[in-house]
Amino acid sequence: MYQQPMMLKPLFKERIWGGTNLRDMYGYAIPSPQTGECWAISGHESGTNEIANGPLAGSTIREAWDNHRELFADEEGEEFPLLTKILDANKDLSVQVHPGDTYAREKEDKTYGKTECWYVIDADEDAEVVLGHHAETKEELNSYIENGQWNDLLRRVKVKSGDFFYVPSGTIHAIGAGVRILETQQNSDITYRVYDYDRIGQDGEKRELHLEQSVEVTTVPHKDPDLERKTNIHKGMKQELLVSESYFSVEHWDIHGMTYPVHNPSYLLFSVLEGDVNVWIEGEAHPVEKGTHFIIPATVEKFTLEGTGTLIVSRSNKQ
User: Which of the residues are catalytic?
Assistant: First the structure.
C-alpha cells in the first residue's frame, strides 16, 4: 500500500508574457527569461508531471491514473481531472474565455471544458485582472468586440496578495501584468482568445483570435459568483475554504506547529507557497518546502503536518 506523499517534478511553459519570477520566488530552474507557467500537478496530454519518489518514481501522474486508480479512490474518468499551475504574468495575458464540458465534448472532442480559480500569491501595486464584461446581450457583446470597444466591454478589478477569484467556464478574463497566481482548474487547455492587444507572436504574425467561439461560449450577462470564505482554526492549523463547487474544492492552510491528524477524504493535491513542513505518515516524516508540489494518495488514511508554512490544498469533487 502506498504510504507516502507522491512528490512531483514541475514542468515549465515559455510564454510571450512570462518572466523570471518562478525562478526568483521558488528557485526553479526555468528554461528562459520568458517562463510564464509552472505546471505543478498535471496529468494533461500536453504535460504530465514525473513522480520523484516511492514505488512509482520515474513514472508520471498520467501513468499512475491509468494503472493505479486505487491511489485516486478508484475515481471514474479517462483523464486525471485537475491541473494546478503557478503563473507569472510579467506582461498582460490575452483576454480569453473557456468553454464548458458540453461544448468541449461536442466542438473540440475533449473530455473537459475549463472552469478555474485563482489564488493571488503576489501582485505589484495597482495590478489588476480582467474578470467579466459589461455587455447585457449577445448582440451587445458582438458590437463591443467588432468595434474594438475594449475599455467599454471589459470589467477590470484591482488585486492584492491573498485575493481569490472563482472563474467558471464562460467567464471573459485575463491576468494582468505584475500578478503571480496559483491556478486550480479542470484538466483542460482549451482557450479562446477574445483580444490580444494586437501583439506579434514568435512567427512574426498577430496571434490567432477565436471570436466566433468566444461569443458562443461567453455567459451573458456576466454574474459574479457568490463566494463565502469559511475559516476553521484547529491545533496548529488555520484552514480556510476558498471554494467548493461541482469540479473541485480549494483550501488555504496556514501551519504553525503540530496539527491534529488529518483524515484523508480521498486524495489531496498540495502546493507549498511558503515555509517548511513535515508530513507525518505512520510515524515517518516527509519534509516539503516552499515550491514543492505533491499528492497524498487515497491509500493514506490520515496524516499530520508539522512546521510553519502556507499551502494550497485541492481535491476533485468529480464522482
Answer: 193
Which triple of cell numbers denotes residue 194? 477574445
Any binding-site annotation on 116? Answer: yes
**Segment-wise mean pLDDT, segments of 10 residues, the chain, 319 residues:** 94 96 98 98 97 97 98 95 98 97 95 97 97 97 96 97 97 98 97 91 81 97 91 96 96 97 96 98 98 98 98 90
| Residue 31: DSSP 8-state | S
Q: Which domains does the chain have, with CATH numbers?
A: 6-217 (2.60.120.10), 230-316 (2.60.120.10)
- Assigned C-alpha cell, 93: 495575458
d(CA 70, CA 63): 13
φ/ψ of 42, rounded to 5, equals -145, 140
CA nearest to 237, candidates 314, 301, 308: 308
The pTM of the whole model exceeds 0.90: yes
- Between the alpha carbon of residue 211 and those of residues 98, 113, 191, 256, 291, the distances in Å are 12, 17, 11, 48, 37
DSSP per-residue letters across 245-294: -SSEEEEEEEEEEEPPPEEPSS-EEEEEEEEEEEEEETTEEEEEETT-EE
**Residue 216: enclosing H or E segment and its boundaries?**
helix 211-217
Using CA atoms, how far residue 258 sits from 19, 133, 255, 294, 308, in Å, is 36, 45, 8, 19, 9
